[in-house]
Amino acid sequence: MKDKIKNAKSLEELQALYTETFGKNGTMTAKLKTMATLSNEERAVVNAENTELRGLFKDKQTELENAALNAKLATEYVDVTLDCEPKNRGTLHPVTQTLKDLSAVLESMGFELWTGPEIEDDWHNFTALNTPEYHPARDMQDTFFLENGNVMRTQTSSIQIRAMEKVGVPIKMFAIGSTYRKEMDATHLPSFHQIEGLYVDKDVTMSDLIATLRTLLSKFFERDIEIRIRPSYFPFTEPSVEFDMKWGDKWLEMGGAGMVHPNVLRNCNVNPDEYQGFAFGFGWDRMAMLKYGLDDIRKFYDGDVRWLKNTGF
Ligand code: DAH
User: Fold this and answer.
1) Which pTM was predicted?
2) What is the tens place of the pLDDT at every residue in 232-255?
3) What's the CA-to-centroid distance between 113 and ligand 1, angstroms?
4) Do the beta carbons of residue 19 and residue 11 sit within 8 Å?
């Protein structure tokens, strides 16, 4: 039996031998049944045989199972070096990446993200921003009007109003999103992106504004950015400025800012004798172009994967 076990060629054969030995009518089973009638020496012999046979079965079983597994591995394998159809991994679009970068910077500075509708009513897009209907500054923005009197929002400034109306002051918020104007060339599109910041509290000053803009741009571009401000005009700020940033040896116009006009605060039920704040707003498509070295803003929206790949995205 020992040789038979050692020479078994398959698990089935081994199973048959096992039944022959330890089954109901097995040879070993029969011997074990007689144990009670045996002398101590005889018992020891049977016990030793019992243990040895069980060990042999176990070893052989392991050996046969391993052999079966190895045979399977030898035939069923995957060649990981085989060519297959290349799969493109998706990436974030430069515009989305920029949106995330800017948001992360402003959030790190304690500004809270707000959103608002892209179809906006006259009050939030213009009137509450101290730009009533007769106001000549409405002409500054080539507005898309809808038939019902609403507009495609021309500026994210509308969200300042929505935020102050909703939660009042003090407030430190920003908004980021699409804005719409009737214009189109290599650096302007009818739909573009703006970011807007607002900080109103009891002792906010112009120097807070300048520090905020400088920090925002420096963190975004990951280098020290020099900025300068020039006097300007916006209906919703007084005084108003435009700010530029130094890029190489050039000054680039970035956007508008200023101290929130008392009328704007009043329109949101905030007492301007008690509270003051700054606001800023700018289009950031060009910032994405500068940061990622892109040249034609229209490509942002073509959805051309080859171009996106070439940008390194
Ligand atoms: N909304 C202005 C624009 O679209 C930009 C702007 C200027 C926003 C001054 C502001 C601000 O919040 O204070 O041109």
Assistant:
1) 0.73
2) 999 999 999 999 999 999 999 999
3) 17
4) no
